[in-house]
Amino acid sequence: MRLNDKVALVTGFGSGMGRAISLRFAEEGAKVAGLSRSVEAGQESLRQVRAKKGEAAFFPTDVRDAAQVQAAVDQTVQAYGRLDIVVNCAAVRITGTATDISVEDWDAVLDTNLRGTFLVSRAAIPEMRKSGGGCIINLSAISGFHGTAGRVAYSVSKGAVNNLTEAMALDHAADRIRVNCICPGITETPMVTIASPEQREQLQRRIPLGRVGLPEDIAEAAVYLASDAARQVTGAILAVDGGSHLA
Ligand SMILES: NC(=O)c1ccc[n+]([C@@H]2O[C@H](COP(=O)([O-])OP(=O)(O)OC[C@H]3O[C@@H](n4cnc5c(N)ncnc54)[C@H](OP(=O)(O)O)[C@@H]3O)[C@@H](O)[C@H]2O)c1
Question: CB 3.0-4.6 Å disulfide test: which of 12, 14, 20, 87 passes with 219?
Answer without folding.
Answer: 20
